[in-house]
Specification:
mainly alpha; 2 domains; 2 strands
Length: 445
């Protein structure tokens, strides 16, 4: 009798599977957070003085996912054994619709000249973060490989360094750069899910640490010896303008804000479709290999959506529509940002940290080097924590999370995160190639 092996598939269906219900749960969570964080006395005042509300907005959905109430995706096993897959579209909706709406609303009151007056430290910290990813990969492979050689081994398409190249692409640029690395180095796609898993866990844990740090930014800036006067001047200038134009918004104001936000979203998607298609044909016409993949990000519709939105926001900030900041433009943008934060938190199952632990350790060591280099350079050039946090997230988090971190300091600063993240797309592939070259040398030695 021939033995057969039957794969046991675990049913991971959450308690709530309908996005309408899950969205309601997330909104109730956000409402609870804002209600409790508004308390001026008692336990909640002490609690939120230690932990930022933005971090809790990220953490609660993560806990709900961990205990099985909600999930970003799942597998259902029927009574007869049939297997079906399900997923939530909330993150897609938040990142493709609400994120660009938030960006244009937050950019309306932006003073582009004042942003440039912030000086070169923002770019220096961004490039430092990039350098930390490039050198962090090979160092992590060397360190972990000295304890567990099998963790960085593998031959041919199964070689771990090939898989780690996709992390380098993601952590310097974004999804388009990650896909480019998968194609360039031909990593076994059957194993690729493990690398995506490491990306999600390590990047999300690091984002959580950065969010916690925002609540301590004054103390961190003091330790760094940072001069935050330019940032404070920009925040004060925008705040004063908002107060000067502040009014009780009428229904007409609200409808015009909605028109600005979602009209921009529609146009950005329309333009992104054409631009990504055009550049896809251009990229496909290039010589296969590194040359082609250096420009893969140009065929990403997400890249063009964010870029077009930012350009529209900057243009509108020079028009009379700028006055709609007084009707609460950035406040509505902040609502959308918090919904995006909750949808990102929903993607994090805290128990996954203990799975595939050797790859996780590589990712953790890698991120520690990235963070350590950022802290060292910030200390040397006396850069504010804002530049450290946004410079890191513009690399590791990309255009979805960099404006979240930037706007946590002040809504007017969201554009700084977007501009750096877009720059990350441009250098993501070449940076990842340099990182992968060194990881291959270390893994082969």
């Amino acid at each position: 009798m021939q033995d057969t092996v039957t794969e046991i598939i675990q049913d991971t269906t959450p308690f709530f599977t309908q996005d309408t219900i899950v969205f309601g749960v997330l909104m109730v969570s956000l409402g609870f957070i804002f209600h409790t964080s508004s308390k001026k006395t008692g336990f909640w005042k002490v609690f939120y003085s230690l932990v930022p509300a933005l971090f809790i907005a990220y953490l609660i959905p993560a806990i709900l996912t961990t205990v099985g109430l909600i999930a970003p995706e799942w597998v259902s096993v029927g009574d007869t054994g049939e297997v079906t897959e399900g997923s939530s579209n909330l993150y897609y909706i938040a990142s493709r619709y609400l994120l660009p709406a938030a960006l244009v609303l937050m950019t309306l009151s932006m003073d582009l000249k004042a942003v440039f007056n912030l000086g070169p430290k923002a770019l220096i910290m961004f490039l430092t973060g990039t350098a930390g990813i490039i050198i962090g990969g090979p160092i992590a492979v060397l360190v972990v490989g000295s304890f567990w050689p099998e963790a960085v081994g593998g031959e041919g398409a199964d070689a771990v360094w090939r898989g780690l190249s996709t992390l380098a692409g993601s952590w310097i640029g974004g999804g388009a750069n990650q896909t480019a690395m998968l194609e360039v180095y031909g990593y076994n796609q059957a194993l690729y899910g493990g690398m995506v898993f490491v990306d999600i866990v390590v990047a999300n844990v690091w984002m959580a640490i950065i969010l916690i740090g925002i609540g301590k930014s004054a103390k961190i800036d003091k330790w760094l010896g940072a001069d935050t006067s330019a940032i404070e001047a920009l925040k004060e200038k925008v705040s004063n303008y908002a107060l000067e134009k502040e009014r009780n918004p009428s229904l007409t104001d609200l409808m015009i804000l909605a028109a600005i936000a979602f009209g921009t979203v529609g146009f950005a998607h329309f333009g992104a479709g054409y631009m990504s298609s055009f550049f896809k044909d251009f990229v496909d016409g290039l010589t296969p290999g590194l040359t082609r993949n250096l420009f893969t990000f140009l065929s990403s519709s997400f890249f063009w959506m964010i870029s077009i939105t930012t350009i529209i926001g900057i243009i509108l900030s020079y028009t009379k529509l700028r006055s709609y900041e007084g009707a609460g433009a950035s406040k509505f943008g902040s609502v959308f940002i918090y919904i995006l934060v909750a949808s990102i938190g929903m993607k994090m199952d805290l128990t996954l940290i203990f799975d595939n632990w050797q790859l996780i350790i590589i990712g953790v060591v890698w991120m520690i080097i990235h963070a350590g280099l950022l802290i060292l350079i910030a200390k040397l050039i006396k850069a504010p924590y804002f530049f450290l946090a946004v410079g890191s997230q513009a690399n590791v988090g990309g255009a979805a999370s960099a404006p979240i971190v930037a706007s946590a300091f002040h809504p007017s600063l969201a554009t700084v995160g977007v501009l750096l993240a877009v720059f990350g797309y441009a250098i993501g592939t070449i940076g990842a190639v340099a990182c992968t070259f060194m990881m291959q040398l270390v893994a082969s030695s």
